[in-house]
Design a protein that fits this description.
Distance between the termini: 107 Å
Strand content: 15-25%
Helix content: 25-40%
Shape: elongated
Order of helices and strands: HEEEEHHEHEHEEEHHHHHEHEEEHEEHE
Number of strands: 16
Number of helices: 13
Structural class: alpha+beta
Largest sheet: 7 strands, mixed
Strand order of the largest sheet: 8-7-6-3-2-1-9
């Protein structure tokens, strides 16, 4: 026996004999025959080197299978790095990371996207994607998922109560071989038994299979038949006529045939790219800067509603010093609230009340020079879509509105008031706001958080403040 070589056929016979002894005390129907076979094959190229089955007292069948491996077929039990699955997993994870980063950027506006910054955004995406993919590859390359072992992956393709790997002792001569250690690790993780056969044909249990189904419902049952019978079917040409019936047309005989599919990763990557496109489209809806063709811009201006508005007879410049000129009727739409000592000035309350009764009202009170300047609604007709303010409150009394504005300014925060009739059908009252007029709600919210962070305001003071969208009504 010392010169005898452990072939795969010898290991099969020893393993099947071991099964008869190992399972002979398992509860079963005594009047039901025990089925013990080897060299069976099922749908999809699944091979069972050994098959042992009997009926349990509850009437359900018990099935145990094994994969026999000799030194000549060592490829069945050594692991191979599965770079294909690793790369696809990395691409799927990278896609999800980029979606999260793009969504976060949409909220915080770290990098604003317009039609002049596509190159910058593509470069940033490429950098972020490369870093995410490289980090994932570095961390995940030693995961069990990416160490493909044919025998283990084949067991995952079908259901059996217990599954074994039967090895000749000469397959791994070094007990600390990295391939043997990985095989043991995967056998324990997947509930697979490990059996060795020595040169004297004595079997030895290294790992017992799990007695409980740890993958319940995840593996399908496969009907096995002798390989000779399948060969006869192939020779008669029935597989060419009915490939869908037998599922065995053009069988792959390589040890890599049970590798995982990449359908899920491809679907995730496709969805990620679609979400990125949606996010970028959302960003482009209200860009900070838009580069357009001169003719296109001219045509757009020609069709604009603002062209139907009459040219104002006078303009109020944005300056701390006001030019001295004679008062005319056209000045009733604009007035400056100076020092109370200037008795020739129109009183603020009466001027505001008069403006409220007119079709063109006033809309903003801001600090200019030594007093207050009031503008009419047409000042904001050039708004491109909605703008946002940090609303302090809606007030109906002019004195209360100006006092509130001054109170907020006293804390070092700019404040002003808008006439509600410019933005709503409600003709009465003011919208007192803090800060500037912002392009997005996120900008306004971030500014308000900054006031609290810098201790200019307390959380209780801003508890009732809110972000409000405004859009002027064309008069």
């Amino acid at each position: 026996m010392e010169d005898q070589q452990l072939t795969e056929n010898i290991i099969k016979k020893v393993a099947l004999r071991f099964f008869r002894h190992y399972y002979k005390f398992r509860l079963r129907y005594e009047d039901q025959p025990v089925v013990a076979k080897y060299d069976l094959e099922g749908v999809g190229g699944i091979v069972a080197d050994g098959y042992y089955s009997f009926k349990k007292p509850d009437g359900k069948p018990f099935t145990a299978t094994f994969e026999a491996t000799s030194k000549a077929s060592i490829d069945e039990v050594i692991f191979r790095p599965d770079h294909r699955i690793l790369r696809w997993d990395g691409l799927a994870v990278t896609g999800l990371v980029m979606v999260l980063l793009a969504f976060f950027n949409l909220q915080e506006q770290f990098h604003a996207l317009d039609n002049t910054k596509f190159g910058e955004r593509i470069a940033l995406l490429a950098l972020a994607g490369s870093l995410a993919f490289g980090l994932f590859y570095l961390i995940a390359q030693n995961f069990r998922r990416y160490r493909y072992i044919y025998a283990v992956e084949q067991f995952k393709k079908y259901y059996a109560d217990e599954q074994w790997v039967a090895l000749g002792t000469d397959v791994f001569e070094d007990k600390n071989d990295k391939y043997l250690r990985e095989l043991k690790s995967q056998c324990v993780f997947n509930g697979i038994g490990l059996l060795t056969v020595d040169i004297n044909l004595d079997p030895k249990i290294i790992i017992t299979p799990s007695r409980h189904d740890i993958f319940i419902g995840k593996r399908q049952k496969v009907d096995f038949m002798p390989q000779r019978k399948l060969q006869e079917i192939e020779q008669r040409g029935r597989l060419d006529l009915f490939p869908s019936l037998f599922g065995l047309a053009k069988k792959d005989k390589s040890v890599l045939r049970h590798r995982k599919s990449t359908h899920t990763q491809i679907a995730l990557l496709t969805c990620s790219l679609a979400l990125l496109a949606v996010i970028f489209t959302k960003e482009l809806e209200n860009p900070d800067f838009q580069l357009v063709d001169k003719e296109e811009f001219t045509e757009k201006i020609a069709k604009s509603k603002s062209n139907s508005l009459a040219e104002p007879e006078s303009y109020l410049p944005d300056s701390s010093s006001m030019p001295k000129r004679k008062k005319s009727k056209s000045d009733e739409s604009f007035w400056t609230l100076r020092s109370p000592k200037e008795t020739t000035q129109v009183p603020a309350e009466s001027a505001l009340a008069e403006s409220s009764r007119r079709s063109v009202g006033t809309d903003e009170l801001t600090a200019k020079g030594g007093g207050e300047i009031v503008y009419d609604c047409s000042r904001f007709y050039n708004f491109d879509g909605k703008k946002y303010i940090v609303e302090v409150g809606e007030l109906t009394d002019y004195k209360v509105a100006t006092a509130t504005v001054q109170s907020i300014r006293g804390k070092g925060i700019f404040s002003a008031a808008l006439l509600k009739s410019c933005f709503t059908e409600d003709k009465k009252g003011f919208l007192v706001y803090a800060g500037e007029i912002y392009n997005t709600a996120a900008e306004a919210s971030k500014e308000m958080d900054g006031w609290v962070a810098k201790n200019k305001l307390t959380k209780s003071e801003v508890r009732n403040w809110k972000i409000r969208a405004i859009e002027p009504i064309l008069k």
